[in-house]
Amino acid sequence: MFEYHGWVTIAATTSGDDDAALLERLIERVHRAIRDSHALDLVDLRWSAGLPMLHLGGFDKHGGGIAPELLKTFSRVGELAPGSYGLLHVWDDQDPEHDNEFRVFRMARGQVTEHPDTHLTPVAPTVLDVYEL
């Protein structure tokens, strides 16, 4: 099983005072990028309190087959809107190196880096009583 949950606050710059017209254009580009991601379950792009945000989430029974598209989409948002920040949590129980742990992809200043999770890892016994390969 492949599980993912993520969010991004979309921003054109890191100054906190993005031009509204520029932000609208960026959101249209982000919308086009996520529209092409057909394999993802939950993709929610909306405005809240005047700021654009993106939520991603879902499961894939066949393991990490959607992982490349998911990471490409997450990274693409950072490329389009370099002031963006957020987190993407991923657990792939078929990953031989990380099968009992969540991984976190952090977006800061539009750049994505991978990190170990310290909150839900190890999955067993933190989240599940037992975990068998």
Describe the protein.
The protein has helices at 20-35, 67-80, 123-126; strands spanning 2-9, 42-48, 51-60, 85-92, 102-108, 111-116. With 133 residues, the protein is an alpha+beta fold. The protein has a single domain (2-126), classed as Alpha-Beta Plaits (2-Layer Sandwich). A 6-stranded antiparallel sheet has the order 2-3-1-4-5-6. It is elongated. The model has no long low-confidence stretch (mean pLDDT 91).
Strand order of the largest sheet: 2-3-1-4-5-6
Number of DSSP E strands:
6
**Major sheet attributes:** 6 strands, antiparallel
Shape call: elongated
Structural class: alpha+beta
Residue share in helices? 25-40%
Q: How many domain modules?
A: 1
Q: How widely separated are the two ends?
A: 11 Å
Mean pLDDT: 91
Output the number of helix runs.
3
Low-confidence stretches: none
Radius of gyration: 16 Å
Q: Give the SSE string.
A: EHEEHEEEH
Q: Which fold name is given in CATH as the topology? A: Alpha-Beta Plaits
- Strand proportion, as a percent range, falls in 25-35%
What is the CATH-assigned architecture? 2-Layer Sandwich
CATH class group: Alpha Beta
Protein name: Immunity protein 7
Outline the fold blueprint.
Layout: E1 2-9, H1 20-35, E2 42-48, E3 51-60, H2 67-80, E4 85-92, E5 102-108, E6 111-116, H3 123-126
Antiparallel strand pairs: 1-3, 1-4, 2-3, 4-5, 5-6
